[in-house]
Design brief:
single chain, about 350 residues, Rossmann fold, Zinc Finger, Delta Prime, domain 3, 2 domains, 5-stranded parallel β-sheet, about 50% helix, elongated
């Protein structure tokens, strides 16, 4: 799978740019906390950081080719320790455990106390850091307060609120934000994803590379998305609506995904209206909706988005799913018919 390069993360902001420079110069501090939503590349960055700090290339780290990079990438370098929920570091801990126990942190401390025979730094990556027990966090705190020389500990989490304030205060916190469209499109292209599919993925990915890659290869997702588009944007006759809504009536379990796809389609139409260049994603819509995208007033887009939001709210109060879908179908059909030539 294609993943971001270390230098790509410079687009994440000044904190990441500064950290990348420090990594290249081997001028890191003893502990970092990488935080942010799922799918923003925190784990990938932590792995690249570990490789870079162990890399033998004097000019560009990580080179990806030297012995240290190869071993680190495979998780087999003797100076790199990885702790995660379900991947214990200490012997005897069940792999199905949902928390990171204190024994893992004690094993990490033992690892940190042994100097590298090759003169390397000792790198510790703690994924799912929020899953550490309170006892484990307190044990880690002792190392954070008095770290050994040539140690770099990198914690990764989506939930900083689950970590003790004393742990947070002893780490340099790096916050990840949604990725720019250009980076996600480049990675999708390198994965062999066509431009039209990539544009649709982009509209639903919310700036997440992980989500974009997952959606791009999820054929069940694209089958459902085509069904949503066909039903809501290619329906122009009232006589078809009962037949279509009957097909949806027993699928309330898919309601959130259906409504999210509908919102994403409206965002594609709005983005195309405001874009300076042609949006290939617009080609997936019939001519009346392409005309809507080019000519409709902004209030019409907001009206459609509000209708989807209202449908979501109604379903929270156990409204009849088929009735909610029928109402949306009539609304979208009526809007589409207004732009038919």
């Amino acid at each position: 799978m294609i993943k971001p390069l270390l230098q790509d993360y410079s687009q994440q902001g000044e904190d990441l740019r500064a950290l990348i420079g420090q990594i290249q110069q081997h001028a890191t501090v003893h502990a970092y906390l990488l935080s942010g939503e799922k799918g923003l590349g925190k784990r990938t960055f932590a792995g690249l950081m570990g490789q870079a700090l162990l890399c033998q290339d004097p000019h560009f780290r990580p080179c990806g080719h030297c012995r240290n990079c190869t071993l680190a990438s495979a998780g087999e370098h003797p100076d790199l320790a990885v702790i995660a929920k379900g991947a214990p570091l200490a012997p005897g801990i069940p792999k199905d455990r949902t928390t990171i126990p204190v024994d893992d942190i004690r094993e990490m401390i033992r690892f940190c106390s042994v100097r590298s025979s090759d003169g390397n730094m000792r790198i510790v990556l703690i994924f799912d850091a929020d899953r550490m027990t309170v006892q484990a966090q307190n044990c880690l705190l002792k190392t954070l307060e008095d770290p050994p020389e040539d140690i770099c500990i990198v914690l990764v989490t989506e939930h900083t609120e689950a970590l003790l304030p004393t742990v947070l205060s002893r780490c340099r916190i790096i916050r990840f934000k949604p990725w720019d469209d250009a980076v996600i499109l480049r990675i999708l292209k390198e994965q062999g994803i066509g431009q039209e599919r990539a544009e649709e993925v982009l509209a639903a990915a919310d700036g997440s590379i992980g989500k974009a890659l997952e959606l791009a290869s999820d054929e069940a997702y694209w089958k459902l998305k085509k069904e949503v588009k066909d039903n809501f944007f290619y329906t122009f006759r009232r006589s078809d609506i009962l037949r279509i809504s009957n097909g949806w009536k027993n699928r309330k379990g898919e309601a959130e995904q259906i409504l999210s796809m509908l919102e994403a389609d409206v965002r594609v139409l709005l983005t195309s209206r405001n874009a300076e260049a042609d949006n290939p994603g617009l080609n997936a819509f019939p001519p009346p909706w392409q005309r809507f995208s080019r000519e409709a007033e902004p209030e019409r887009f907001l009206m459609l988005m509000d209708a989807v939001a209202q449908a979501r709210k109604q379903l929270l109060y156990s409204a009849n799913f088929q009735t909610v879908i029928e109402k949306l179908l009539f609304l979208f059909m009526g809007e589409g018919n207004q732009w038919s030539e």
